[in-house]
Amino acid sequence: MTNSCPYTIKTEENKRILKITCKNCIHGMSIEDSETCMKGIINILYEELDIDLIILSGLIEREYTKNQAITITKLAELYEKIKDSHTNPLIPAGQECDRCVEKRRRTLEEIENTLPKNPRYSYYELLKYTRQERRKAELSNTEECLECRIYHVEFLEDILKIYENNNFLRKVKRYQRKFNDPQNRKIYKKFLHPLVKPYFSTSRILLEPPEDSILISTYKVKDTLVRLFLPNNKPEHIYFVSPAEYSLTSKDLEIIHSAREKMLKHTPKSIDFSNPTKTREYFFKLARREIAKIAKKDINFTQNKIEELSEIITKYTAGMGILETLLSDPYVQDVYVNAPASKTPVCLNHSQVEDCVTNIFLTENDTKSLISRFRARSGRAFSEANPILEIELPELGTRVATIGRPLSPDGLAFALRRQKTTPWTLPQFIANKTINSEAAGLLSFLIDGQVTLLVTGSRGSGKTSLLVSLLSELTPNSRVLTIEDTLEIPASTLNAAGFRIQRLKIQSTTGKSETEITPQEALSTALRLGESVLVIGEVRGPETRILYESMRIGAAGNAVMGTIHGASSQSVFERVVYDMGIPASSFKSTDIVMTAAPIRIGGGLKRYRRVLQISEVNKDWYSSNPDPKEVFSDLMVYNPSNDRLEFTEHFYDSRVITSIAKKWNIGMEEALKNIELRSKIKRFMVDISAEKQFKDILEVEHVVNANNMLRMLNEEQITLETRDYDLLFQKWTEWFLDYIEEIRNVV
């Protein structure tokens, strides 16, 4: 049998892959949409055997995976059986009458020819024809015609059984009512949903969302439509993207193809490709120039279209392709690619619906390209001897962790963790209910009082974000030294808000480099750099002994803050003392431990980040092996019944608050009023932000300005015998309302 579709068959990983060249096809390269395409594929499969994968290749590539290839192969087998069945005589043996033979032959040939184009319609036509012939048999007026027609009906019923034994057509029958028009091809999309990609991308997506799913929300990320679905039979949401580049017209694809071909021939004179931002600018300008040349004769080709296509080319040359879309979504927090990456969909964590599976599938080329880029950017080795690689992508606000064999026996896997582009603030945490305003007032007071504070919690509890939010409560003239192996604290934004932050980057625990400084060396250096607030990204190793010794003798400077893994304040004590070997007496240098955790309210599926405990370290125990329960007193504890942090009785006679009050030369009663004032101010900011629908007013720049105004108003009353906190709040609110209007007018 001849076939007009050029194709090749190759074997990869024990899979026979049928690849059809569709570049010059005018019939629509889609088995489910096009009769011509379906017929061409079935004709090929009629001759070829054991195909595991079908690829239609043109400027757009459509990949039909193994189960779909099996479905189409079964249709080809059905076609073969039907053709073979038609070799039977159309009238009983021995009969000389052949009046009906030619008509029967033409009808059956039409049904047979319809099968590879539209199997469902072919079956429908056969069913209709069989009923007509059965009716004719019932009305036969001669013995000879009756015998002939019964013979033909039995022959047709045998063919019907062949159709009905086909697994695909059995499935189709379930949707007869919904797709009652037998010529409607939409029914094929129920079973044939290929992975699709434009030729310049190596990542594939599903174009059709699952039918039995509920649409939760829709929004846009740049030029990409994002839809969130919830399947009827699974608790995991589906993050469904429809990027503009995956639905480009043939004309647009041709222009991109021509522009890319010309760009490949271009030799840049001087460009620093180690700078991602500069590289991206270079490719964008080059793409825009080439596209403008190609499209200049087309008066309908707008400047916006030139910019759009230039951005697409840049995204797939200097950028990270379709993954860049996910990393540009402000709701996406983490992106995961599990091994084997080419066989599992990309997954992510979404701030609104938690864990999601996406309609994106990476290929082997994707993973190889990514790892090459990460290795080059980091300057670190990645091999079986070094199967872990971590890298920062500051242009995307993302941290990447990659693992390979033998640690990951199934191959490469990635975790891309997005970082908030601006620092978190306490008012923002009030707005999302991680803390309440009372806790924010207390934390603001404690940080202003230069305590030593550790934030603890499990991975994903928001430890670092909480730590960063505390920095905005420092006085702007504070000098801050940060020590991190992964640069998560947004120093540049904080410095722009008036702080003086010096970052120290230390050796990573997973990807050590001889050129990087150890945590011990960095901490020792920081302690020699003068009096500063010391912020440690994560307290975890032998450098902890240096830290606690410095805090014990007062050499650490004004204040110390850091994060540490743990489930509670007591677990922090046990880890520091028993796991890290710090003397119990030295642990007294810690003033406050704040515990955060992701919780499932009412046992629901969604997890919410909450601060569960703010505890102070007691100073009146002297045992070298104390009971951890004796070490802490809770100032605030989370109440699950009302989803709030609440003050404990101990809060009102807290040693830490009393100590700060003494340093400020105020009494405990006034210290509590000070905390209450800070709490009211934070609450007011959040309420006004919601009322005026102006979320930006809770960003760090405005929170710092609000804190500074409170300090200035407080300074006006510094000589008074008794401060009027109600008057302070009144003056501050008047200022803030004027301030927010001024800011909005500028914006």
Q: What would you say this structure looks like, in words?
A:
This protein is of the alpha+beta class and 747 residues long. It folds into four domains: 1-193, no CATH class; 200-245 and 322-418, Beta-Lactamase, CATH 3.30.450; 251-315; 426-661, 3-Layer(aba) Sandwich (Rossmann fold), CATH 3.40.50.300. The chain has 23 helices and 24 strands. The strands form two sheets. The chain has a 15-stranded mixed beta sheet that branches. It has a nine-stranded mixed beta sheet with strand order 18-17-19-20-16-21-22-23-24, sandwiched between helices. Strand 1 and strand 2 (15-21) form a beta hairpin. Helix 4 runs antiparallel to helix 5 and helix 16 (519-527) runs parallel beside helix 17. It is elongated, with a radius of gyration of 35 Å. It starts with 6 loop residues before the first strand and ends with a helix. The relative contact order is 0.05. The mean pLDDT is 87.
Short recap of the structure:
The chain is an alpha+beta fold and 747 residues long. It is built from 23 helices and 24 strands. The strands form two sheets. It has a 15-stranded mixed sheet that branches.
Features:
Beta-Lactamase, 747 residues, 24 strands, 4 domains, 15-stranded mixed beta sheet, nine-stranded mixed beta sheet, alpha+beta, 23 helices, single chain, elongated
- What's the number of extended β-strand segments? 24
Broad CATH class of the largest domain: Alpha Beta
Mean pLDDT: 87
Q: What is the overall silhouette?
A: elongated
Q: What is the CATH superfamily of the largest domain? A: P-loop containing nucleotide triphosphate hydrolases
Count of alpha/pi helices: 23
**N-to-C CA distance:** 70 Å
Assign the structural class, choosing from mainly alpha, mainly beta, alpha/beta, alpha+beta, or little secondary structure: alpha+beta
Radius of gyration: 35 Å
Poorly predicted regions: none
Strand content: 15-25%
Helix coverage percent: 40-55%
Main β-sheet: number of strands, strand sense, barrel status?
Answer: 15 strands, mixed
Report the CATH architecture of the largest domain.
3-Layer(aba) Sandwich
CATH topology of the largest domain: Rossmann fold
The number of domains is: 4
